[in-house]
Amino acid sequence: MLGKIAKWMQSKELTAGKDELELDPNLIPEHVAIIMDGNGRWAKKRGLPRVAGHRAGMKAVKEVTRAANDLGIKVLTLYAFSTENWKRPKDEVDYLMKLPQEYILTELDELIEQNVQVRMLGNPEQLPSFTVEAVLEAKERTKLNTGLILNFALNYGSRDEIVQAIQQLAGDVKCGQVDIEEISEEIFNRYLYTNGLPDPDLLIRTSGEVRLSNFMLWQLAYAEMYFSEVYWPDFSKRELWKAIYNYQHRNRRYGAV
Ligand code: FPP
């Protein structure tokens, strides 16, 4: 069934035509979240090692960030490393851990110039200190910017996030800071990594896979989902525009008629 939905979405996507897509500036999603998938297959197709796919994926991050900022998207959340990705070969994990630092070293000046704010969501505890320090430095140096919030999900797992939120909330109940009766969705939101951010309006997953992989399970409750066949390293500004074009032709009802 989901495969059929993905195919139907592809055909809808094609109706956007080959020329410049016309996007409605009043219907730009506030928060776009992306599961960047297909780096390994992109590399395999070219006879390259998997890490070459991740390197190429970093280029796509640059292009999509710029395009999102230019469109006036407020938040772009990118799933860069999940709590399950530790199961990959050590060489690949080591490589992935170096990418945020490299990205920040080469891109920070431009991100500052573009008025982008860098943030992170996920558990920093198991991450190498150089990865966390690079992200924290970028966060600090961009904290007064007012443009796109570029949120890297690193060592992020939605179930892990929910469990840590419950632990903290239970602690606050125990010490009398929160009454059980006053717990609401709004209060619960404050304990999540995404505290203060709007929920994603649009979730994009690349590479033809149609699943959530433990990504923002709470926050995606009413997101529109868009599945692209394109491998992440080939996901371009135009692919982002196609996803938004598709989003703009959905009918969001939030459970109403
Ligand atoms: C999934 O593709 C991709 C990842 C687990 C890593 C994503 C990371 C990047 C795109 C680079 C991040 C860049 C910065 C700046 C942090 P996969 O390897 O599972 O692909 P496959 O399913 O084809 O094997």
From TrEMBL:
It comes from Ammoniphilus resinae. Keywords: Magnesium, Metal-binding, Transferase. It is an enzyme of class 2 (transferase). Belongs to the UPP synthase family. Homodimer. This is Isoprenyl transferase. Signal peptide: none annotated. GO terms for molecular function: ditrans,polycis-undecaprenyl-diphosphate synthase [(2E,6E)-farnesyl-diphosphate specific] activity. The active site is at D37, N85. Substrate binds at residues 38-42, 50, 54, 82-84, 86, 88, 205, 211-213. Its EC number is 2.5.1.-. Mg(2+) binds at D37, E224. InterPro entries: UPP_synth-like (IPR001441), UPP_synth-like_CS (IPR018520), UPP_synth-like_sf (IPR036424). Catalyzes the condensation of isopentenyl diphosphate (IPP) with allylic pyrophosphates generating different type of terpenoids. Its cofactor is Mg(2+).
